[in-house]
Automatic annotation (TrEMBL), chain A:
Its EC number is 2.5.1.18. The keyword Lipoprotein does not apply. Keywords: Transferase. This is Probable glutathione S-transferase GSTU1. It comes from Carex littledalei. The keyword Transferase applies. It holds the Pfam family GST_C.
UniProtKB/TrEMBL annotation, chain B:
This is glutathione transferase. Belongs to the GST superfamily. Tau family. It catalyses: RX + glutathione = an S-substituted glutathione + a halide anion + H(+). Keywords: Transferase. CDD domains: GST_C_Tau (cd03185), GST_N_Tau (cd03058). Residues 4-83 form the GST N-terminal domain. PANTHER family: GLUTATHIONE S-TRANSFERASE U26, GLUTATHIONE S-TRANSFERASE, GST, SUPERFAMILY, GST DOMAIN CONTAINING.
């Protein structure tokens, strides 16, 4: 691992966190080797590259591993700074972008997980929370093309992978995201027109298949 | 003319507020510290941080910035002088990683170790020991996490450096001690000796009294009382 030149991404196909890294790399036109990981029997490479969390994604650049998806995206943005900047150059705009990406990080996945994992009252509570989160994000988007304004940026990268989980959240929670946050749905369609996103995200039905597999595995339903 | 005044809405009892304050002092920024009563948050705070409603909030002119680690990076980028983050992208990634590790793993495990009991407490203590050991390893051969001078990770670790001893005393546990964590304890002393830090810290006894007065509430809710 030590002095191998090039870029490798240790990842898991359906992970929205891994997809953030893939989208960022694609936006920057970076050539890299994708290594699909077995999360049940973790590889030596994964365990060595991320001994603290033992999780994907891990970006390995010239032998040096970078972990945690938003840390990875910022790293990609800073190293390959000549093309498609993801974060704005103005410090205040940058801080705002970091704030909202952090908000997505803290809220969307956990709430979504509770939505498909829980039942009854707890599931209802998760659904209510998810609607609040989506409406807040929609308000933040406003009438902008992207969260980054006119250009696809950091918050878009952080959030768009969850778009293909929306179908699963809607189905499990029995609600419609288009009904509660129509601007977000339009935003997602715009993002899906980008090659980096379209080539990275999996069909929502495939994601739902995976969620059903997880539900079985955890004995839900 | 553009308003360039800097205000920090904070509370000296909060380690997160402390991070922002130290960042400003390291950069020699003139700022006004606006004390927030965390039990009765001001309209200004709620207006500037409607999402999380927490301290710290930095208000630079008309622009509010919230979330302590984000505030630190903003201060580092908006003001000249001292470098809080390294310039090399890989080193920056490492700093961000370890700052997040402190927030996501070290602090929660230690906090829960303080305010639980029985078997549950034993579990948290074991977790906490593991996270402290992992973190201590990052100090090998260095005075500070940032190298020769304090940086992002040191600021992130301020709760470990100062608040952990306070919490331990109030909770009656002895997790972070010189015998088990000599390097981390030495770092804690060095961190607290940095001028920008010592100027920001409250007297330890005041902090002990504050947490002691909240002990029952914390035991019941496990919620932080310092943001």
């Amino acid at each position: 691992m030590a002095s191998e030149k090039g870029v490798t991404l240790l990842d898991f196909w359906v992970s929205p966190f891994g997809q953030r890294a893939r989208i960022a790399l694609a936006e920057k036109g970076v050539q890299y080797e994708y290594k699909e990981q077995n999360l049940v029997e973790k590889s030596d490479l994964l365990l060595k590259s991320n001994p603290v969390y033992k999780k994907i994604p891990v970006l390995i650049h010239d032998g040096k591993p970078v972990c945690e998806s938003l840390v990875i995206v910022q790293y990609i943005d800073e190293v390959w700074s000549d093309k498609s900047p993801l974060l704005p150059s103005d410090p205040y705009q940058k801080a705002q972008a970091r704030f909202w990406a952090d908000y997505v990080d803290k809220k969307v996945f956990d709430c979504g997980t509770r939505l498909w994992k829980l039942k009854g009252e707890e599931q209802e509570a998760a659904k209510k929370e998810m609607i609040e989160i989506l409406q807040l994000l929609e308000a933040q988007l406003g009438d902008n093309k992207y969260f980054g304004g006119d250009t696809f940026g950091y918050v878009d990268v952080a959030f768009i992978p969850f778009n293909n989980w929306f179908y699963s959240y809607e189905t499990c929670g029995n609600f419609s995201i288009e009904a509660v946050a129509p601007k977000l749905v339009k935003w997602a369609k715009r993002c899906m027109e980008r090659e980096s996103v379209a080539k990275t995200l999996y069909d929502p039905n495939k994601v739902y298949e995976f969620v059903c597999y997880l539900k079985k595995k955890f004995g839900v339903e | 003319m553009e308003d360039t005044t800097v205000k920090l809405l904070g509370n000296k009892g909060s380690p997160y507020s402390h991070r922002a304050e130290v960042a400003l002092r390291l950069k020699d920024v003139k700022f006004e510290f606006l004390h927030e009563d965390l039990a009765h948050k001001s309209d200004m705070l709620l207006r500037h941080n409607p999402i999380h409603k927490k301290v710290p909030v930095l208000v630079h002119g008309e622009k509010p910035i919230a979330e302590s680690l984000i505030v630190i990076e903003y201060v580092d980028e908006a003001f000249e002088g001292y470098n809080i983050l390294p310039s090399d992208p890989y080193e920056r990634a490492m700093a961000r990683f370890w700052a997040r590790f402190i927030d996501d793993k070290v602090i929660p495990a230690f906090w829960m170790s303080c305010w639980t009991d029985g078997e549950i407490q034993k579990g948290f203590i074991a977790q906490s020991k593991e996270t402290l050991t992992t973190l201590q390893r990052q100090l090998e051969g260095k005075k500070f996490f940032g190298g020769d001078s304090i940086g992002l990770v040191d600021l992130a670790g301020c709760m470990i450096a100062f608040w952990f001893a306070v919490l331990q005393e109030v909770a009656g546990i002895n997790l972070l001690n010189e015998e088990d964590y000599p390097v981390l304890c030495r770092w804690a002393e060095d961190y607290c000796s940095v001028r920008a830090v010592s100027e920001s810290l409250l007297d330890k006894n005041i902090l002990v009294a504050f947490f002691a007065s909240k002990k029952e509430k914390i035991f019941a809710t496990k919620a932080p009382v310092y943001d």
